């Protein structure tokens, strides 16, 4: 399917959509929410690959069935899960930057004293994806090492 507007500057297209929907803010909010959900869904395969997670493990992390999780790949991530996916994607960026790729799947499963004997996967499964990101930031805070 060819979409000629894809050759345009995304900011120009966004301005056109916003201008066209200025009388319907609810439509615009739904449109942007759908775009964000679909864009965030694209981050999930990378998180799974880098962390070495199966779809079943990922579904457990997000507290949904494997079938519901699989649907996210087609329909996008539900709005209530966007922040969690974003947290894990940002944590993944840090892990990829600072660790050898082959060490990440083991590292995210290894219990850590700083996490109360839990692993990053345990923390994510408990629903604390913000804690996962905070822990990764702390692990790689080079400035704190010298303090």
What does this structure look like?
With 147 residues, this protein is mainly α. Helices cover 67% and strands 0% of the residues. It contains ten helices and no strands. The termini are far apart.
Structural class estimated from helices and strands: mainly alpha
Overall pLDDT: 89
Number of helices: 10
List low-pLDDT spans. Answer: none
**Sheet with the most strands, sense and barrel status:** none
* Helix-strand pattern: HHHHHHHHHH
Helix content: 55-70%
Distance between the termini: 56 Å
Gyration radius from CA atoms, angstroms: 18 Å
How many β-strand runs? 0
Helices and strands in order:
Blueprint: H1 10-20, H2 25-41, H3 44-51, H4 55-62, H5 66-75, H6 82-98, H7 104-109, H8 120-125, H9 129-139, H10 142-146
Helix pairs in contact: 3-6, 4-5, 6-9
Key traits:
147 residues; mainly alpha
At a glance:
By secondary structure, the chain is mainly alpha-helical. It contains ten helices and no strands. The mean pLDDT is 89.
